[in-house]
Amino acid sequence: MHQYSHDLQLEIKEADWPSLDQVGLSSELLELRREGVGGSDANIILSGDPDRIHKLWREKRGQADPEDLSSILPVMLGSWTEAFNRQWYEQKFGLKVTRLSKVASGADPTPACQIGYASQKISL
Predict the structure, then answer these.
(1) What does the pLDDT read at residue 56?
(2) Is the torsion defined by CA of 102, 104, 106, 110 positive or negative?
(3) Does position 46 have pLDDT exceeding 90, yes or no?
(4) DSSP state of 85
(5) CA–CA distance from 9 to each of 2, 14, 15, 16, 17 (Å)?
(6) Which helix (H) or strand (E) holds 98?
(7) Cα dihedral angle (110, 116, 121, 122), rounded to 10 degrees?
(8) Residue 60 contacts residue 34 (beta carbons within 8 Å)
(9) Looking at residue 101, what is its pLDDT?
(10) What is the rounded CA–CA span in Å between residue 108 and residue 120?
(11) Which residue has the higher pLDDT, 102 or 10?
């Protein structure tokens, strides 16, 4: 219990908040990320930074481990608030966000781009 100035007491239950070990990508999703190009990868590619691009290339080929982002606060906050962010976006813009988990590719059998989310117009 926490005491506030007007004798208002709030009980904070740990069960109401996801624990840090519940936040982030599973090993299966991490492996799926290696097989395609996602939004974070596109940011690296478009940066034009040869060192970052080479590191990404090595990660995609399985020659290097991806950076562990589990201790980076903005990354963890983004993962932790993902459901809230999706709901806020849907309410604000009237667009339904759905998890696609599709892989977009052409006839070429090279690694594809993973599309994680898409939005569509809905009536609220």
Answers:
(1) 94
(2) negative
(3) yes
(4) H
(5) 6, 16, 18, 17, 18
(6) strand 95-104
(7) 140
(8) yes
(9) 52
(10) 28
(11) 10
Q: Report the alpha-carbon distance of residue 44 to residue 82 in Å, rounded.
A: 22
Q: What is the predicted pLDDT for the residue at 124?
A: 46
Whether residue 33 lies inside any domain: the answer is: yes
For residues 52 and 84, state if they share a domain. no
**Structural domain contains residue 72:** no
Between 52 and 81, the higher pLDDT residue: 52
Look up residue 105 and give its two tokens: 């590719």
Three-state DSSP class for residue 10: strand
pLDDT at 40 over 50: yes
H or E element in which residue 91 lies = helix 82-93
Question: Does residue 1 lie in a domain region?
Answer: no
Say which residue, 55 or 118, is predicted with more confidence.
55
CA distance 70 to 67: 9
**Pick from 97, 96, 93, 92: nearest CA to 117:** 97
End-to-end, the C-alpha distance of the chain in Å comes to: 38
Domain containing 97: what range? Answer: 80-105+112-124
Q: What's the token pair of residue 112?
A: 């594809």
